[in-house]
Amino acid sequence: MPSNGASDSEVDAYIAAFPKNVQRILKKIRGIIQKSAPEAQEAMKYRIPTFVLNGNLVHFAAFENHIGFYPTPSGIEHFQEELQPYKSAKGSVQFPLDSPIPYELIKKIVVFRVQENRKAVPAGSKKKKNPKK
After folding, report:
1. For position 121, what pLDDT does the model report?
2. How many other CB atoms are there within 10 angstroms of residue 48's CB atom?
3. Is residue 104 part of a domain?
4. How far apart are the first and last CA of the chain?
5. Could you give the residue ranges of the DSSP H alpha helices within 37-102?
6. What one-character DSSP code corresponds to residue 40?
7. Would you say 48 and 61 are in contact if contact means Cβ atoms under 8 Å apart?
8. Is pLDDT above 70 for 3?
9. CA 25, CA 62: separation in Å to the nearest integer?
10. Do 117 and 55 form a contact (C-beta atoms < 8 A)?
């Protein structure tokens, strides 16, 4: 699982600050993202766990009554029908802690975002250079 090292402990500390039942949920979400986006780098952005792959991929966070999941506006829009039961906004969705967390849906959203971020790079990336000899 690729990471940048320092943020591993930051994310671990973030998760450890919550009650055990919430820690289990956060660890499971983290694991789903790591498996679904093995090339993504883990970081802390906006004081919440973030995965980065050619830009921000997804963020997640725990709150008193819900888990916040932030797959960007495109992730919300693409899965709007499946996200209908949940409170959502332009780039975020809330999964209530008193209901089952939709882990399979989270996985589908992450896979979608990975494909989306991979497609976005070639068009806008100037990192690859073709040396002419």
Report:
1. 64
2. 15
3. yes
4. 38
5. 72-78
6. P
7. yes
8. no
9. 9
10. yes
For residue 129, being part of any structural domain is answered with: no
Contacts of 14 (CB under 8 A, 6+ apart): 26, 44, 48, 49
Domain span including residue 111: 6-119
Average pLDDT over residues 58-68: 98
CATH of the domain at 74: 3.90.1150.200
Residue 114 lies in a domain: yes
The tokens for 129 are: 């250079």
The C-alpha atoms of residue 117 and residue 8 are separated, in whole angstroms, by 22
Confidence band, pLDDT 50/70/90 cuts, at residue 120: confident
Contact 44, 14 (CB under 8 A): yes
Q: 49 - beta bridge partners?
A: 44
At residue 26's C-alpha, the angle toward residues 3 and 81, to 5°, is 105
Instruction: Residue 3: count other Cβ atoms within 10 Å of its Cβ.
Output: 15
Mean pLDDT of 50-65: 96
Q: 56-62 and 87-88 as β-strands: parallel, antiparallel, unpaired? A: unpaired
Would you say residue 61 lies in a domain? yes
Number of domains within the chain: 1
